[in-house]
Amino acid sequence: MDNFMQAAIEQARLGMAEGGIPIGSVLVHEGKIIGAGHNRRVQQGSAILHGEMDALEQAGRLPASVYRESVLYTTLSPCSMCSGAILLYGIPKVIIGENKTFMGEEALLRSRGVNLEVLQDPTCINLMDEFITRNPELWNEDIGE
Amino acid sequence: MDNFMQAAIEQARLGMAEGGIPIGSVLVHEGKIIGAGHNRRVQQGSAILHGEMDALEQAGRLPASVYRESVLYTTLSPCSMCSGAILLYGIPKVIIGENKTFMGEEALLRSRGVNLEVLQDPTCINLMDEFITRNPELWNEDIGE
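Above: the input entities. Below: the structure tokens describing the complete assembly.
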């Protein structure tokens, strides 16, 4: 497995160990992780810290030129909010762990020229499958349903 | 002027007084403000706390049923990220102070059934006009340009 997706999975597991929703993400620039994050809805009572948003926040303030040469790795297909952040910052490529348990705004991203790669990684799928089975209400809250 | 847009403008001014980008937002449910926020890029070194995102974060974790009966007020047309958050949570109505200085994802929001009202309020326009003239690089950073 790609080391960066592995790092995103480690973030997801870290979130799970904290009692949170197991979704992780890393932002990679010039072959280095510049931001790593995970969903913090439970841990921080946050409505906006999805995994991808947390990775962007941990990366801090960056000029557009950095985002435009970066790749975002996420264990789960990005929702509308995270996809919007990808579009805002012009991140050209997103590597997605899986979209079997949740299909995000992949069609919108592709229509705007974002290069997506979906791995359908069994580890990512299992993390979410088990979480959703155990915590359906929390999951629905996270995706606004 | 609508009291809620006035509250959003007060948030924008508060942000400006802190040395930040003057964009404010409030989330209104059943006639009451349940979240008020402003852009915190400068103040917190944040890449994700736009005014609307901050208002959602200040409102805290909410069930989908609350968002779906809420109205979001924002002094400026919402960018891709903030529009994505509006779509994620199914907020049905957004009142926008102005879209002269920046046009956000209004077409996308309308195409998904979100009801938008654009006030073209002179106070909102002046706040952004003056800010962008004084801080073009900071503004470009905030919109990923």
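Note for the figure: Chain A has a mean pLDDT of 97.
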